Amino acid sequence: MKRCPECGRDYNDDSMSFCLDDGSELLFGPASMEEPATAILHGTALPSEAPTRAQIYTTEKTAVLPSGTTDVPKAKGFDKRLLLAPLVLAVIVFGGFFGYRYFSASTAKQINSIAVVPFVNDSGNPEIEYLSDGMTETLITSLSQIPSLKVKARSAVFRYKGKDTDLRTVAKDLGVQALLTGHVLQRGDQLSLRLELIDAATEDVLWADKYDRPTSEILSLQNDIARNVLAKVKAKLSGADEERLKKLPTTNPDAYQFYVKGRYFWNKRGADNIKKAAEQFKLATAADPNFALAFAGLADCYAILGDYENVPADVLGQARGYAERAIAIDDQLAEPHATLAILNMQKFRWDEAEQEGRRAVDIDPNYPTGVQWYASILLDLGRLDEAIVQYQRAYELDPLSGAINDGLVNGYQARGDHKRAVEVTEKFIALDPTFPGIYADVGLSYLMLGRNDDAVKAGEKAVELSGRESWALGKLGFVYASVGRKTEALNLVDELKASAEKSGSYGRFVAAIYAGLGDLDQAFDWLGKDFEHSSGRVLEVRWDVPYTEMRKDPRFKEIVKRANVPE
């Protein structure tokens, strides 16, 4: 350990020479630097070691004798053995110093869990916010590849972005031993990054460094940072781990920046942002035609765009093509396999869907979205217990993801465990009150538990937060119908029908309201429209609450048969 003699700050990194606060030269030794009496031991310095200032304590009855003193005043009862004091002190000081270094190095704890706090953009330019976010996300991905290190997922840490939250509170909330913080500054073609690795329990700085590189070296920079962090947390790396760290997704810095910007927009969701993301991913693939992750990003865009707006039938085909291109370049990426799983599910190709979902989880069991999507496939197949296990696993990986919490709630609702569904939902809403899907689903559970007023409020909140998206209108309409507010339910039917005429809105949302009104003939007619429009999400009717009465009708078997669900 080193300490600054001016400010008293401790540094565990012995390679550092100067204090980060005031620039003073750091000195070895754990002893307090605030004692008044010190001695400087002169002589030949050890290799690679600076002259060391040792702490010598004094008492009222003891004099500290400078080394080499010969004129010693004689006093009554003077003990000549005191002449050996300087030598003894030197032995103690050097022995204590090396003993401290040896034992502190050998007993330093290994860090098993870490959170990369969103890096701060110090550039003063919000247009390059994608860069600080992208570097954070890339580092999370790199560190997550090491099985011995638990790394918090993106959604878990990004809730703290832009907030002045105490670091100890962040660490406690996330349940990690260490936090990695960073400040990014880009000026022209130069990139500057300051990092600190902080012990969550003591708030001591375990390691700090500053990197100044040309922007063209951003890829190698992030690789170096990952290796340095892993060394400081004493992560155990296998040969395979070493190879994964060495592997760069692309060698083209422009392609990488396009990719980072694409993920920045993709993570924001919404139709407009997903379209912006696709544009950036296309630029990345143009800059590097062998950039597998960029093709995987394109596949993700086209795979989920239909969740936000009605899209042409060939969009899913484009998504498949991009996913297959990514796999052809690099078969060891989990992302495109997970995307193919969802695409096969929407085309009712259940064997291929399960195979690709399982493949994605096997490649990267710590990829939360891959685990979540695999769970969704199992849920549609009616394998409820297996689906809940996978949803719970995804939740463990990323407990602050709205989509994953929503999926877990769906699993509990399918099992009829509405109390558990409410518990999960209310815990999540306390942390993130802005995710609309979770309100729509908890409204259904409130309804099943007889909490009608709460059901209506939750459904209306979902409609408000979603901007009146069709799925939210359908679930609120079912709630209105179920509590006897027929006029309001029919008004939402009219709104959904008008939307369907313009853009082919999904029929199952209209069917949900008719089911709540008890008009199953109309409900089945509208549900059939989803097959006409090749809506692969139609099998939500197998487990979602609004379709409970429809599942008791003999006509429902025909719906399942049309979806090619295996017996």
Percent helix, as a range, is 40-55%
**What is the CATH topology classification name of the domain at 113-248?**
Rossmann fold
Please count the helical segments: 23
Beta-strand residue percentage: 5-15%
Q: How many individual β-strands?
A: 11
Distance between termini? 66 Å
CATH architecture descriptor name of the domain at 113-248: 3-Layer(aba) Sandwich
**Backbone structural class:** alpha/beta
- Average pLDDT over all residues: 81
Globally, the shape reads globular
Radius of gyration: 31 Å
* Main sheet attributes: strand count, strand direction, barrel closure: 6 strands, mixed
Unreliable runs, pLDDT <50, ≥5 residues? 31-107
The CATH class designation of the domain at 113-248 is: Alpha Beta
Please identify which CATH superfamily of the domain at 113-248 we are dealing with. ABC-type transport auxiliary lipoprotein component
